[in-house]
Amino acid sequence: MIHKFHPDKNRWDGVEPHIYKENPGVFRKVTKQILFDNENDLPVQFRYFQVEKNGFSSLEHHKHMHAVMIFKGKGHVLLGNQVYAVEEGDFLTIAPWQWHQLRADRGEILGFLCLVNHDRDIPKYPTEEDLAEIRKNPEAAAFLDGTLKD
């Protein structure tokens, strides 16, 4: 099967964009398109996320690992308590239980492809204590506040 990507629409043929999560308080301006989901003997889900300008994915961690490739645009990612600039072509691995969040804060959009196990645990969101620990790094605090300078 082939799904053609249309850059003018930022979507693939036959793949409907969905709202990222059911709890809108933890993210902003993010859609998800599922490109592959647990077929035959490959128990993974391959997804495309699009984060609109000044949007962000949820700050979370969980037992499962992610493999992420930046497909379009530029932004920043928080991994643990470290902040990295990312752009088209960058490949990230997000370790189990590592805090992570992606932000479209360096241009118009940030589009990324993400590979995860089909069967996976539910994300955990940070407590006030977790946030205080992350914020010990001033760059991470600026990232979370949306005031990080490029």
From TrEMBL:
<dbReference type="InterPro" id="IPR011051">
    <property type="entry name" value="RmlC_Cupin_sf"/>
</dbReference>
<dbReference type="InterPro" id="IPR013096">
    <property type="entry name" value="Cupin_2"/>
</dbReference>
<dbReference type="Pfam" id="PF07883">
    <property type="entry name" value="Cupin_2"/>
</dbReference>
<protein>
    <submittedName>
        <fullName>Cupin</fullName>
    </submittedName>
</protein>
<dbReference type="InterPro" id="IPR014710">
    <property type="entry name" value="RmlC-like_jellyroll"/>
</dbReference>
<feature type="domain" description="Cupin type-2">
    <location>
        <begin position="49"/>
        <end position="114"/>
    </location>
</feature>
